[in-house]
## 1
Amino acid sequence: MLNVSRLHVLAEVAQRGSFSAAAESLSYTQSAVSQAVARLEAETGAALLVRNRRGVRPTAAGATLLEHAELIFAQIEAAETDLAAVLGIRGGRLRVASFPSAGAALMPLAIATFRQSHPDVTLSLAEGEPEEIAPRLRAGEFDLALLFEFPGVGERPGRGLRNVPLLVDPMHVALPADHALAGKQAITLADLREEDWVQTSAASPCARHVVRSCQAAGYEPRVSFESDDYETVQGLVAAGVGVALIPRLALTRVRSGIVVRALSPHSPSRRVVAATIGGPGVVPAAKTMVKVLADVARQHTALFVAEPVAFA
């Protein structure tokens, strides 16, 4: 009989293209991944993977098995969801953590929606930055956490967790309403070379990404003020003391006295995910909340797609 856990390992190796990348994603040793694939090949009596210059790819037998594996995984998840609806979400607790801007923009509607269907589940919400709450999720203090990661950056708080993508959150430039660039349709980071900057505290992930983005544009940003409260950041911009890059999730309410513009040719962005621990330890309520959050995230994204110039 095929082992589902080893099927998961095979699928991860095929998706990542290497044993080492799969091991990193699963938080396994490379040896454990190799052994799992070898045992699966022994069970099937066929070579399932082949190495070439581009990495690892499935053999014909491996590709066939992976097609069936996707169906198996989907059926197992459906069974878990149905069982949770009958047994698992009639009570108990769900401990959720989120970074602040998602906590303000996404969590209220998600919590309200969840409680309508599952009023007997005790919900709690804590806030913190991804690098603070991800270790606590791994340690079992939370059942689910909203995290963000910047593409192409080694800082990955969600490493080793099961991450469900929710949305891409671009960072837009906020300018004083009377700024000389406020009427310009296409603003680049290079246009902001001589500006004073307002940003979150220097150690925060967003501030580090602002600095990286400006450095990629050829200069070091001149940071004059720092605040981890985006309402305060907006207030400082409105007062005319600097410009700022603010994630769209933190722009559900834009104060008077500023204008917000997307950057050209594209704005820096972060990927927002719902993270849970891997394996069978995920509480059923967390799986249901992930689906609720995905729906709320789609609504949030659709709102900004429908009104792309809502920040003028």
## 2
Amino acid sequence: MAHADFEELKDLKLFKKGKVRNVYDLGDKLLFLASDRISAFDYILPTPITDKGKILTQISVFWFNFLKDTVKNHYLTGNCEEYPEELKKYKEIIEKRSMLVKKTNVIPIECVVRGYLSGSGWKEYSSNGSVCGIELPKGLKESSKLEEPIFTPSTKAESGHDENISFEVMKKSIGAELSERVKIKSLSIYKAARDYLLPKGIILADTKFEFGLNDGELILIDEVMTPDSSRFWPANDYEAGRSQKSYDKQYVRDYLESINWEKQPPVPELPDEIVENTRKKYMQAFSLVTGKEEL
């Protein structure tokens, strides 16, 4: 069951409802609950992707555990048996698609790290030879590997598009010292994940992180390196100079482009075949990242 709006949880205090996730306020903690909703081009599609919320949550849980020596994070538990009593009656709905996390003061910046030139980074480079104010070598192609990963922050928009900004703008927004800490931490997390994934056949082209502060300590929050927040490319098919096959929702975007939807309401339904193939791509990513075959 998709539980698209989690109507059954009306007695919990809704902290925030995002495009694909609900967050509930439990006092000093939050409950992150991932739905099967999928968004593309800033619209929530009317058709859910079966098990998507569970897949993304379990990938994030894996990374929080994997990275715990690299960075402190907000993850407390994803085990319903360890949840507060008032949540246990919802076990059937929230199991495997939820996490109990610490509350933090969220830093209002999307922390993007790029190891390859793709998406908005490629568009920006094509027009002016740089990304977020970082000059790059001439002659790079779409999907080119960068000599060193780059930190390219963006604004964190509540609705509509995030906008790429320079590191200088970020420093003016949140302060130079905190900006440096966030940049160093983002690059170290990306490199740890990149080096873990490549032998498993996945290129981590780019990804975005969010951070919060907890008593002055920098904490990794939100979801981490899922197919919704990262570009995962099959390494055995990689070739610079073109767009790449991927284990993320690019497949859904490509379908929507193919039917010439004008990215305005009404938002089209997804055919069963697209839903099933998208689920398969998410499950492939889950299996390659975690080494598990089943959720």
## 3
Amino acid sequence: MILVTGATGSVGRHVVDGLLKEGQMIRALTRNPAGAQLPAAVEVVAGDLSRPSELPLDGVRAVYLMAMGEHPHETAQVLADAGVTTVVLLSTSEVRDDTEHQPGAIAARHAVFENALERSGLLWTFLRPNEFAGNALQWAPQIQAGDVVRAPYGDAWSAPIHERDVAAVAVRALLDERLHGAKLLLTGPETMTHRDQLHHIATVLGRQLRFEEIPAAAVREKMAAYAPAEIVDALLNSLAEAVGEPATVTTTVYDVTGRRPFTFHEWAAEHEGSFR
């Protein structure tokens, strides 16, 4: 049995689909089982990573884990005590291995989870994706309402990765012991700015869209209403540092899955309806 946490999320749902195709037995953890809308073959259970002692681990041998909750070391110990052998952690490319002090709150949070798993005795694999292509969905309301996207750091570079590619690597890591102990930096196949991403969306929609730069302070207060201030600051600082700095593109998705990763244009075409 494989436990998938965050099973209704943008990556977790694809992990569930990928494991089903591999014939695996899946237990999907979600806060709202009634609204999960997962395939009938999946055992859907209620749970919350903020309460690791209550995780449904009976018969579970492997876990796809989100870095959620405030008790990473307790979570790792609970998994080990329950007989889980393998954990694949969704981390972030923000984590640095060459320093004890991570560059921001996002990296620090994920590094603590990585450290907890490294010390647990479990077999682990860390997935460190670059910016999710799905982050562009934050522009959808503006695109639906007009032809201008107002946001900071239009010239910030990244190598946006399709969530399905992250999930595909996660599935292989859950099933292939050769990936145990790997820290996998995951990117899309090309580096681009946020302005470039908007251009791809415009092309898919057949419209002329324009990126209008606004100060980071103009959005910080709104973002801080639904995310901790230190996380908001880390995100905005990361974007600021990416201005004028093309992202490094890796071949990890191809190396692990044997197929090329999806382009951002393909992601935009797949999500066209979200922007109309």
## 4
Amino acid sequence: MALIRIDAAGDRPVAHGMATPVGAELERALARSPAGPVVLMVHGYRFLPGDPLHCPHRHILSDHAAHSCHKAASWPRGMGVGEDCLGLAFGWPARGSIWQAYARAEGAGLVLARVIAEIRRLDPAREIHALGHSLGARVLLSALAALERPALGRVLLLAGADHASHLERALASPAGRRARLLHVTSAENRLFDLLLGGLVTSDTLGDRVLGQASHPDLPELRLDDPQHLAGLAALGFPLAGRQRRICHWSTYLRPGAFPLYRALTGPRGAALHAEVTRIAARRPAALTGAWSLPLPWGANASS
């Protein structure tokens, strides 16, 4: 599988498991891979590269065919790495308290920006797209804000864990002005948005977390909205209905999600992104009972 594994080690990128500079590895991978985009994949909270229990490269960023953990859907397989694209799995130290991980995510984004700039230098014509979950979305927004020239194409933020002020900084950058973003969320994640907004404060007055904010340049695709799901189905991307009341991982665990993300980062992804953006612009239908929890807190909730 055409998959590059890179980690943030302090303020520099290193090849996973080798602690060596990434330039030569990137050059070899780009030269050997067929024409097609590079797709960056960035994990969220509680992972730590190299940790025997919490390494993302053994979990969602692995190319495994099956895994004992139900949350460990293989992103590289889901995104068609080796078939449609060259994959780059980016690991960063996301363990510790939520405040520690939130702070480290911004620094990890600066490291990722260096990786993106190196890919652009080595292969200027190669498209680069990205997928990030939870605090991985904050990593991607930090990278966008740091890039001095346009570099990323389509950027998919899954249940993004960040504040609107950070989004504004990213969108104001040269790279952010050219990137096409999409925020995928659902009612299953509302509890996590509430917790993030209550626990992690911002220096900007009135700042809100992405799951509670709206921005004209950040289309919000809601997987709990019947109109949005019907629109996706009409485009040939049927997604399963909600399977849990509370789940921070539903944006990639829900059956049908990866075919959509794979197509959005594929060769016809620009046109599809425009169609999905039009769907996301539809006024959300009333989501009756979205906040109600008639079952006990533990019932049907993800672990």
